[in-house]
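Listing S7. Sequence submitted for prediction.
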Amino acid sequence: MRIVLIALTILSLSACGFVGFPGVYKINVEQGNIVTPEMAAQLKPGMTRRQVKFILGTPLIEDTFNQNRWDYLYSKRNGKKVLSQSRLTVEFDGDYLANVSGDLAPSDWGAEVSATEEKKAAAEDSEATLPEPAPGIPVPAP
């Protein structure tokens, strides 16, 4: 009798774990930064940190070990089910925007970066090809 009672107790308690409670309302939970494709399209190479923060808002994650990387994450959940999720990573070179990657990164970002790099390379080449000053003429310090 005792074994049957213990078995019935274990069986009834284990059945509680398989049944979901009907009518329990689970709210949609939105976490992170809402970043739209229009906001991401406004990002241009060479923008300052302040300009990027003005467009996108405060980043969700500012990496402690890498000060030049900001992460903007967004997720929307209904209970345990993920409805939508997006990520945008912004990287800086010093104080200036160098790279944007992730789900919302503009598709023409690579073209803009290469055009900026070409302009920098052309400026460096023009400085390198300046003629040498004539002997005896003082050269101003940069």
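Caption to Listing S7: primary sequence and predicted structure tokens for the chain studied. Residues 109-128 form the longest helix (20 residues). The mean pLDDT is 78.
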